[in-house]
Amino acid sequence: MHVLILGGTTEARRLAEILHGTVRTTSSLAGRVAAPKLPPGEVRIGGFGGAEGLARWLREHQVDAVIDATHPFADTMSFHAARAAADAHVPLLALRRPGWAPVDGDDWHMVDTLEEAAGTASALGRRVFLTTGRMGLASFAHIADAWFLLRSVDAPEPPYPPRMEVLLDRGPFTLDGEREVLRRHAIDVLVTKDSGGAATAPKLTAAREAHVPVVVVRRPPAPDAVPVAPTPEEAAAWLTGGAAALPRTG
Question: What is the pTM of this model?
Fold first, then answer.
């Protein structure tokens, strides 16, 4: 069996580790991070050329199943995967970590886009901890009356806010570390995407403890009727016949 795993997420790497030695895997990384953590098995870096290119790759490399383990906000790739898998007649599973949910004491402000997040954040505070990644900074570039702390794996490229400090770091993050970031930089508003998962969740607890409001960007729509596994272990079970028990999108 040849399985194509899409994504450079923690879950994608874990799935490759589970399958290593028993199933042939090819992990496909987008190439947006300069020094990604490589999973075991075969690895390819870069795009496929849209849904058509991906479908062609699936046929040429005799792929038996596709696991879409991309980031929850990589919606374009997820829709390309759904179309390509259908065209190539290859089973597709989405490995998608559950989103976060607010608890008592949280002050969350839900928005649909980074543009909305920028407007909401600038209305809530003047020292913004921006944890949405370096790719969407253009949405915040026009804000001159707030200071931003951007945390990113790689250094950003313009356009970005005129008053900004960059913190190069990679999760998982600890609660004590997140508390210190908020305290040291006098953060009064946090901006995040609803990425889900435990690796970056401590910032939400730290914000709740410090009474810091959080602007949360909702996840984009996902392709309809694709079975979903919330963990790498369940995704591995799907490959051996557990698909019937998994929920579907749509």
Answer: 0.88
